[in-house]
Amino acid sequence: MKEIRWGIIGLGTIANDFASDLNKVSGAVIQGVASRSLTKAKDFTKDHKALKSYDSYDDLLADESIDVVYIATPHHLHLKWTLKALKAKKAVLCEKPLGINAHQVRLMKSAAQSEKVFLMEALWTRFNPTMEEVLKKLKSNPIGKLRLLKADFCFHALDQSPEHRIFNLELAGGSILDIGIYPVFLAYVLLGKPQEIKAYGQFHQGGSELQTSVLLNYRDCQAQLFSSFAFKSEMKAHLYGEKGKLCIDADWFQSDSYRLITDQGEQVFTNPKKGIGFCHEIEAVNTAIRNAKIEEPRWTLQNSLELIELLDEIRKQVGAIYDFE
Fold first, then answer.
1. Pick the CATH number of 4-123+277-297 from 3.40.50.720, 3.30.870.10, 3.40.470.10, 3.30.450.20
2. pTM of the full structure
3. What value, to the nearest 5°, has the Cα angle with vertex 63 and ends 57 and 66?
4. Is 149 helix (H, G, I), strand (E, B) or coil?
5. pLDDT at 1 exceeding the cut of 90
6. What is the DSSP string of 212-234?
7. Contact indicator for 273, 154 with CB cutoff of 8 Å
8. Which CATH superfamily is domain 129-272 in?
9. pLDDT tier at 223, thresholds 50, 70, 90
10. 311 pLDDT band (50/70/90 cuts)?
């Protein structure tokens, strides 16, 4: 089995979690990591057994020994470094959201297809074992026709500085792109594109969007979605059908279990994930690269484009638009 050699750009919290899981995946190695700070890069290298440290993203991309790059920079830098990595003929796994808006995602999609290089948005929930089983289970129609989906992603962050990346408008801050993407993703992956979108938001004192309520209207179903940095929610996902209910347990976007509730009673299904939960998307990328694929069929660039189009409309309705767009 070909060993896949990874590079990591942007060494924040999520990159640390990702690297911990990467070291649990067989047939993969952290070939190099890059930060603006060489000290930070060397510390990261030591903590995660990486082979090389760089204080320049460009230098990492010039390393011919690296097969694929995981981009974990703040949102507003995803486009720049994804395009640079693709031009350097590196496969790319870019943290969500792939781009700030649909225009950016179209540019990335076009570049990946032109360069014939693998690119995927790192929406780890799509590869979570529980999510995989729920999608398969629903094909057998265990709860009848789906009529209502309720999902949220909320945590308290009001103690953070207005300059923190989640609130900083120059860094594309706000709950919609950071965490609201998850419940919108769930509605999209279960129901596709809605016929109608209604969104209502409230704003942080610094001017960024703080919390948003979304209603997606489908022909026979509705999705009630919510994201917030103001409080911590239960973070379960509820799917109501004409013959029963399916509940993905907390935290639904990384859950190890779900419950099926019908007139026959309640069944609990457990699906342990590997590590923190990043292992599954890493394995999917490794397999795609070994098979010379430029997309992963479970989460394609068209999927990423259609998802960001929904988020664009939500932000437009709420008024969460960035000056640099």
1. 3.40.50.720
2. 0.98
3. 100
4. strand
5. no
6. EEEEEE-SS-EEEEEEESSS---
7. no
8. Dihydrodipicolinate Reductase; domain 2 (3.30.360.10)
9. very high
10. very high
